[in-house]
Design brief:
This protein has 19 helices and 11 strands. The chain is an alpha/beta fold and 448 residues long. InterPro entries: AAA+_ATPase, Chromosome_initiator_DnaA, Chromosome_initiator_DnaA-like, Chromosome_initiator_DnaA_CS, DnaA_C, DnaA_dom, DnaA_N_dom, DnaA_N_sf.
């Protein structure tokens, strides 16, 4: 009879054919099977961060591989040694085909991720308007921005915001009936209703609610019958002064084969986007993650991740979890060298010349005719301040040092001061031709 280890090895062998080698080594090798009973398996990962990520991004692959290997439909749960909490899958008929952690089951069977609240959402320049609009909708449904259409790339926080609306409405307006569903689930439910001859019940369900939240509406592209039904559902709700919230990976006019009348309806309200997070927001997101999990991560490691992972929040969190997983498995202290090695596929390609920061400081001091040591001092003399900011700006541009590391070379200044200096010079150089020439002159001297 197979042991749990044998069973897990067989399941992992199948998983390895579904993911690339790096994903397999990072996310599956550190796991173990702790129980298998009654068509349910429990998988253990090294820490809560790790299992949350594994559940959210690889649940479908594990369920598929386990069901195929064990010859029955298998449900999956995740645990970690640090937390007795189990991470489980949501009801598929109600929710997106992704994991929902700590599902909150409500009378109207809405499943929301417990972490996707406004309190947990980090606001930055790229998402400020979308956040404000979502907050307004949650406080005054159908009175502000109806419909609300939020679009943006993968992993930028659209699902977080739309579910945050649900959480806030349930708290502030508990009598309201809400429905949160993916466009794919909406279509599947419609198909099921047609096959079973219960389309009237389907229409009643979606047209007698107070708030309809549809995720990933772009899925309806090319689905004429589903678009037709959604159009009439939209009209019924809007005419009854009910709130509609929609997310998409692109604006309405860019969704191929989306009916013009639907595009027009979306334009009745507010269409707002979410942009990739800027550096300050990426740092804030990582800080919030490590604070929530009470995991000690050095500031320079946070800066390293934030400066090199720029695409989306999902990749940002994934990079952090890779570092945590490797630290846990290899019993390594987390520092910049260790993190750089773990993220070498991301960090390795820097085109920057390896310059000594002291050479940059000397060049800046010479051009501004000030002592080099004054760049590290606390003086606020305008000439020294400008020289210091120029040296900091060039240090970030011409070296691979993190903000924290640069700050240490300028009198122990913190990363926010370094970031402020870089932005100030960047903005000033756009308008000041003399400053642009000076920067270019210093660059040329340093590269010669």
């Amino acid at each position: 009879m197979d042991t749990l280890r044998d069973l897990w090895d067989r399941i992992l062998e199948r998983v390895s054919t579904l993911v690339n080698s790096q994903s397999y080594q990072t996310w599956f090798k550190p796991t173990r099977l702790v129980s298998y009973e009654g068509g349910r398996i429990v998988i253990e990962g090294p820490n809560p961060f790790f299992v949350d990520w594994l559940a959210e991004h690889h649940l479908d692959k594990i369920e598929f591989a386990a069901s195929e290997t064990l010859g029955e439909t298998v449900k999956v749960e995740f645990v970690s040694p640090d937390s007795p909490r189990r991470v489980t899958a949501p009801e598929r008929s109600v929710q997106r085909s992704v994991i929902v952690t700590d599902p909150v089951t409500l009378p109207n069977k809405v499943h929301l991720n417990a972490r996707y609240t406004f309190d947990e959402f980090v606001v930055g320049g790229g998402n400020r308007l979308a956040h404000a609009a979502a907050l307004a909708v949650s406080e005054k449904p159908a009175r502000a921005y109806n419909p609300l259409f939020i679009y943006g790339g993968v992993g930028l926080g659209k699902t977080h915001l739309i579910q945050a609306i649900g959480h806030r409405v349930l708290k502030e307006h508990p009598t309201l009936r809400i429905s949160y569903v993916s466009a794919e689930s909406f279509m599947n439910e419609l198909i099921h209703a047609i096959r079973k001859g219960v389309t009237l019940e389907f229409k009643e369900r979606y047209r007698n609610i107070d708030i309809l939240m549809i995720d990933d509406i772009q899925f309806l592209a090319g689905k004429e019958s589903t678009q037709e039904e959604f159009f009439f559902t939209f009209n019924a709700l809007h005419d009854a002064n009910k709130q509609i919230v929609v997310t998409s990976d692109r604006p309405p006019k860019e969704i191929p084969t989306l009916q013009e009348r639907l595009t027009s309806r979306f334009e009745w309200g507010l269409i707002t986007d979410i942009q990739p997070p800027d550096l300050e927001t990426r740092i804030a997101i990582l800080r919030k993650k490590v604070e929530n999990e009470h995991i000690p991560i050095p500031e320079d490691v946070i800066s390293l991740i934030a400066e090199n992972v720029k695409s989306n929040i999902r990749e940002l969190e994934g990079s952090l979890i890779r570092i945590l997983a490797c630290s846990s498995l290899a019993c390594q202290e987390i520092n910049v060298d260790m993190a750089s090695n773990v993220l070498r596929d991301i960090v390795k390609g820097s085109p920057k010349k390896k310059l000594d920061i002291r050479a940059i400081q000397r060049a800046a001091a010479q051009h501004f005719d000030i002592p080099v040591d004054s760049l590290k001092a606390k003086t606020r003399v305008s000439r020294v301040v400008l020289a210091r900011q120029v040296a900091i700006f060039l240090s970030r541009e011409l070296t691979d040092l993190s903000l924290v590391q640069i700050g240490k070379q300028f009198g122990g200044r913190d990363h926010s001061t370094i970031l402020h200096a870089c932005k100030k010079i960047e903005r000033a150089a756009e308008e000041d031709a003399a400053l642009r020439r000076k920067l270019q002159t210093i660059r040329s001297e340093l590269s010669s």
